[in-house]
Amino acid sequence: MQHADAIQKKRLTAMFAIDAVCFVLAGAAIIGYVAFKQGWLAPVFIGAIAVGLGAQIWFILGWMKAAKQDEEGRAS
User: Fold this and answer.
1) Which of 4, 7, 19, 40 has the fewest CB atoms within 10 Å, counting from its CB?
2) Mind giving me the DSSP string for 16-65?
3) How far apart are alpha carbons 29 and 40 in whole angstroms?
4) With the C-alpha atoms ordered 20, 26, 28, 31, is the resulting torsion angle positive or negative?
5) For 76, which DSSP code?
6) From CA 19, how far away is CA 36, in angstroms rounded?
7) pLDDT tens-digit map of 3-52
8) Which of 11, 14, 44 is nearest to 30 (CA)?
9) How many Å apart are CA 28 and CA 4, to the nearest integer?
10) pLDDT at 76 over 70
11) Cβ(49)–Cβ(22) below 8 Å
């Protein structure tokens, strides 16, 4: 079980790092889009939001997989 915990801790750290980068990128993109009228930054904003959300989904799916394996291990 400790191996799975270590993997989940790495996933959590990676998710936080990806979300932090996406947060900063999305903020800069929306400011550039609205304040400086740079139309090409709208897809950058949407992409940063999508990647950040994808990182969270990736973490949750890994968590669910680890919980399922833990339950199967207890049943055996």
Assistant:
1) 40
2) HHHHHHHHHHHHHHHHHHHHS--TTHHHHHHHHHHHHHHHHHHHHHHHHH
3) 9
4) negative
5) -
6) 25
7) 888 999 999 999 999 999 999 999 999 999 999 999 999 999 999 999 99
8) 44
9) 36
10) no
11) yes
Single-letter residue type at 27: G
Residue 48 CB burial class (10 angstroms; 0-12, 13-18, ≥19): buried
In this structure, which long-range contacts are made by residues 15-20, counting pairs with CB atoms below 8 Å and at least 24 apart in sequence? Answer: 15/55, 15/56, 15/58, 15/59, 18/51, 18/52, 18/55, 19/52, 19/55, 19/56
At residue 11, what is the residue type?
R
With 80 as the cut, is the pLDDT of residue 56 above it?
Answer: yes
